Queue: 2 jobs
Job 1
Amino acid sequence: MRLTYTIPLAVFLFILGLGGYMLTQPKDDTIPSAMISKPLPDFDLEPAMDGVEGASRADFVGGEPKLLNIWASWCLPCIAEAPQLEALKERGVTIIGVAIRDKPEDVAAFLERWGNPYTRIGGDEISSIQFELGSSGVPETYVIDAQGSIQYQHIGDIREEHVPLLLEKLEAAR
Amino acid sequence: MKHWIVLFALSALFPATFVAIAQDDLPPAPYAYTQLDDPVQEARALELMETLRCLTCQSQSIADSDAPMAGDMRHQVRSRIAAGEEPEAIRTWLIDRYGDYVSYSPEVSSTTWPLFVIPAVLLLLVGVVLFGRLGRRRKEGDEA
């Protein structure tokens, strides 16, 4: 048998091996934003409920680096991250929230129950800010520096071990 | 209170059902399920929506998906088309934010060029081999 005849077999075995190897690799569903180190896009959102102020790009410019937290009252991981947001607030971090596809009464009930770490909360009924930020789910948290530039994206709920990391990123964004 | 207990119990028993429950109950965005009045614009919007990836249900296009976020994305596409934006400009706007991942229409880039080059190289190779063999056979035929 000529050696060239084994080439198709070799290609087939390579593809088979590649497929087998990829099956052993964990699946990564997260979609990182392509907006890191780019300026925060312009947005201006109405308050998510009575008694709070809305959120806009201008709220991030000047002063200290801030956190932009994308959340929703219907999102269960958002309950899990509530204590961590509270801890960040106690460390003096300014957190501006945006409630996605939410109702004012639901926002109020959530904050009543799980605490309100936000200085401002915008309401976004059509997820428009998510498309502007390259965000693909709730919750997500962004570190925005004083020039209004996006420095870091945290995908998913903030767990206890993420708090020091976020504080570090905020410090680095100064 | 009771509501939450039931929800958590359900989530433990039926994880898949739970995902469906953990969605908002706002009505869909205006253009999520409503076509544009102008059939030409709607056709352009649909063509684009079929080649944009749903971000929460990643194997579907936004035209195929009933996820709230896909609905909101269709609203973005339709309202931008209605405002006179070009479909490819909307695609670029999304790629700027999510990377190539959001588009089902691959473009030549530093990572995707083999997709375009390999088939061309293979075709060329087949052509060369065929030409060589057929040429040799013809020659042999002439001699015989």
Note: Chain A touches chain B at residues 29, 31-35, 72, 74-76, 100-103, 125-128, 130-134, 136-137 (CB under 8 Å).
Job 2
Amino acid sequence: MARILCIAGAQMGPTQRDDSREHTLGRMLALLEQAAAAGARLVVFPELAFTTFFPRWLYEDEAALLAQFERAMPNPQVQKLFDRARALRVGFYVGYAELTADGRRFNSAVLVSPEGGILGTYRKVHLPGSIEPRPSDRFQQLEKRYFAYGDLGFPAFRAPASLGSAIMGMLICNDRRWPEAWRVLGLQGVELVCVGYNSAAYDPNGGSTEDAGLRTFHSQLVAQANAYMNATWAVAVAKAGEEDGSGLIGGSCIVDPDGRIVAEARSLADEVIMAECDLDQCRQGKQKMFNFAAHRRPQHYGPITGQTGVIEPSATPAAAE
Amino acid sequence: MARILTVGAAQLGPIQKAEPRSVAVGRMVHLMERAHRRGVELLVFPELALTTFFPRHYHEDIAEADVWFESAMPSNETAPLFAAARQYGIGFHLGYAEMAHEPAPGGGMRKRRFNTAILVNPEGDILLKYRKVHLPGHAEYRPERKVQHLEKRYFEVGDLGFPVVRAPMGGLPGVNMGMMICNDRRWPESWRVLGLQQVELVMLGYNTPSLNMEAAGFEAHHLRVFHSHLSIQAGAYQNSCFAVGTAKAGTEDGHELFGHSIIVNPQGEIVAQATSWDDELITADCDLDTCTLGRTTIFAFDQHRRPEAYARITEQVGSVAPPEWRK
């Protein structure tokens, strides 16, 4: 028996620094309407969907920085999205900058049920970039400056019947390149992973060895491989295009538990991609090739949790016997 | 300055059940000679390269399967391979079924069986040994299967972890080299444990059926090769290393194994690929310094990994579902 869930990825084109919140929210509402009209029961928006990718800028002015953050979710400046989604009976994932009551800042995402309840919150664990700005670079990557590391782990959530009772998990952007993140979700039986991202269309480290094509390849490679290796559906959704002169890749995609791309964005603009996802398609992988209980060997995985960085092998070749 | 190591994948066509090791070794020596002419410094042979993929055959008495195992390495039968390596100045990776005679806990000796690979330098030193950790298949005969897959019957789970050695290879004074075997490549944990030792080159051999033999549900045939490539490409990219994946391919004992051996760079791109399902050599010049970009930026583990969020990976084996949602 199939458990079909119709899922949409709502890729967003660029959001400029001077765009009003209302303008951006209007675009999101239009994408929501389009996806719902086509039959989607879940819509996945990008990371930091309500603003430009502001960590590319050094904010000297604390108030200007904090204007990018949400003090509650929902709140009056995003309420229309929640209201309309509930009216349409559509669930959604959305990424945003979270400011807590005690002043902590996270790069977060929420999963909202079609009934309007918050199923779960995730705070990004793998923050890329640097704390200090790089003086020679026009565009910064200051996530480590503006956000604290997520403190919620990688929780999976059992969705209500209106979302197929799917076991759902969330990742944000750079998390998708880290197989540990996917595996922690996989170990909770995840069937659908939602990922929003803002990924540079150039070598973000100042070099010239990576271009938009290679960066898009990497983005899709990790979504495909990790979906396959955890026998889960994945929806990876970009904010794409030129934001104030800084390029972001597109390449939003829906990936099946065999690692196949079943829907893919064609533009760098606002665009809805959709797929009918049979959640039961996860079962073959989970019961066979990736039957974790039968095949995993944690006694040999110690370094993954036991160390953070690299420990190089000894320079002396040790003969095996 | 570039650190170039010229590597080759020596894909093997099928080895039939009745064929003696001398036939396989002769083919491998021939491939090594061709590799030498192409300037290869390190050559990767497949998993269980000396025999047919015998775990498809059921022996009720496991001792009957001992015929497929090597009690010594090198041995009289494999000596020509070591001699060719010395003659041509080529290092090599070889997969084989290992019979180890080790002291038993209660005194005396015991036989231990592993699915093993070794890395050998041109002088014949065994630089590194690896015993396969992720054994697929099953331990008992399964009548519902079209073909048996008895790795869990014939082999113990490897007991050496995922080691990396830094040793001279080719013209380079030190290369960080690690190994995995076949099914290990689908497990990101294998790659990460090697990555955490700054591996620059991962070698792996495989024998993988071109059809899903479980008969437990539909799997499109073309996905078999795709999954193999996807796992190797992502493993290399996510750990900023080169990878060589070498098949034993073709129809063995009436059962088809796919080929499509590949060499992958640290960007996850396939830089060489076999197109036959027979003996075939593919090669690539690997600039090991291209591992540095990923390792020092996006995958700078010391700056970006967060083990405090990874506990489940080592604390649990199987999956544990989350609680039901309540409003």
Note: The radius of gyration of chain A is 20 Å.
